[in-house]
Write a structure and sequence with these properties.
Elements lengths: L7 E7 L6 H9 L8 E7 L6 H10 L7 E6 L5 H11 L6 E4 L4 E2 L4 H15 L3 E10 L7 H11 L15 E3 L7 E3 H6 L11 H11 L2 E13 L5 H21 L10 H14 L7 H21 L4 H25 L12
Parallel strand pairs: 1-2, 1-4, 2-3, 6-9
Antiparallel strand pairs: 4-8, 5-9, 6-8, 7-9
Helix pairs in contact: 5-11, 8-11, 9-10, 10-11
Length: 345
């Protein structure tokens, strides 16, 4: 058992989070981690809703047994910039940063057991450990109809289930530690986040840490309940945004492109080539594709015990693969911000 716990700062970028920020802060202030060793830094990107008012009201009502909360401004609005602002503000004696989002809640012992696991792992493992991520779970409260289907689609390996939303077991090394606790000296060694990335900033910094010889881990010792996209339009934007910014990331880190992410383009081009060549079996590639995504729908129907998933998951998978592929192509020809880009995870 580790008897001495380090000073840790939780960093929360916000933009239009009035529906979630109070619940998130209540969850963080209810942690078993000693409040004297925990501070919360919120960096708001000029929210025009009630987010800032709610944060200020929360701060004014802090009890002595709660962590210190600091609200900073982020004139450029985006997550990578917010995290760098928090990083510059950080007191010198803070050793660890917990990177999270405002639309999340946490078990009340989340920080304590994760930090103790981190310290024990560093003690018993050769090499430098930069971060340990966690497993992401659905919100504990009931979700809208569309949000349930989106949740199932994200958890599926054909969605984003092999990345940040992977459902895994145990403690293992990874390239993708979701909502991780980072060592401050590790982040300093790579000069923080890349401000030019509106999204994919976590993937970028993790790749740079790996190139510097740091290790990344993830663990299911606890979880974070995250509210994700809840409407069909948000889902379409999610696919396009990820495809658009994946190009920017791959140009910096070519090994960060799984072949599965460009498979839809290969399948489309193969089908069109066969069709234009008057090959009678041109329909086989799309038929195989639809068989695979409906198989995924069948699996999620059993997992979620909800027959709607049989049709809902394939439809959302098809839309994700389509919008991601369009966004990926878009990213080759356009610099800067993707249209309708989302500003938080």
């Amino acid at each position: 058992m580790i008897s001495k716990l380090p000073l840790i700062a939780t960093v929360i970028p916000t933009f239009h989070e009035e529906n979630f920020i109070e619940t998130c802060l209540n969850s963080l202030c209810d942690q078993t981690y000693p409040s004297s060793l925990h501070q919360i830094i919120i960096v708001d990107g000029n929210s025009s809703d009630k987010t800032v008012d709610l944060i200020n009201a929360f701060i004014s009502n802090l009890r002595e047994d709660m962590p210190q909360i600091t609200l900073l401004k982020n004139p450029n609005r985006y997550v990578s910039q917010a995290r760098n602002i928090a990083f510059e503000y950080l007191p010198e004696n803070v050793e660890y940063i917990f990177e999270t989002v405002a639309h999340a809640t946490f078990p009340n012992d989340h920080l304590e057991i994760r930090m103790k696991e981190f310290l024990n792992l560093q003690k018993n493992t050769e090499g430098k450990i930069a971060a340990i991520g966690t497993i992401l779970k659905p919100p504990e409260e009931d979700m809208p109809f569309m949000a349930n289907i989106i949740e199932a689609t994200l958890a599926n390996p054909l969605g984003s289930g092999r990345g940040a939303y992977a459902q895994f077991k145990g403690l293992k090394r990874t390239r993708i530690p979701p909502l991780a606790i980072y060592r401050v000296d590790a982040l300093k060694s790579v000069d923080g986040y890349d401000d030019s990335l509106i999204t994919a900033q976590d993937s970028d910094i993790n790749m740079r840490l790996l190139k510097k010889g740091w290790q990344l881990w993830r663990s299911d010792i606890s979880c974070i309940h995250v509210t994700k996209r809840q409407t069909f339009l948000q889902w379409l934007r999610f696919g396009h945004r990820n495809g658009f910014w994946r190009v920017k990331l791959v140009r910096k880190h070519p090994t960060r492109l799984p072949l599965g992410e460009v498979a839809p383009w290969f399948g489309f081009l193969l089908t069109m080539s066969l069709f234009c060549s008057d090959v009678q079996l041109w329909w086989v590639p799309p038929a195989l594709y639809f068989f695979v995504i409906f198989s995924a729908g069948f699996i999620e129907t059993i997992r979620w015990r909800n027959p709607i998933m049989f049709f809902g998951v394939p439809i959302l998978l098809f839309m994700l693969h389509t919008t991601f592929s369009i966004g990926f192509l878009h990213g080759f020809f356009v610099k800067g911000k993707a249209p309708k880009d989302r500003v938080v995870l």
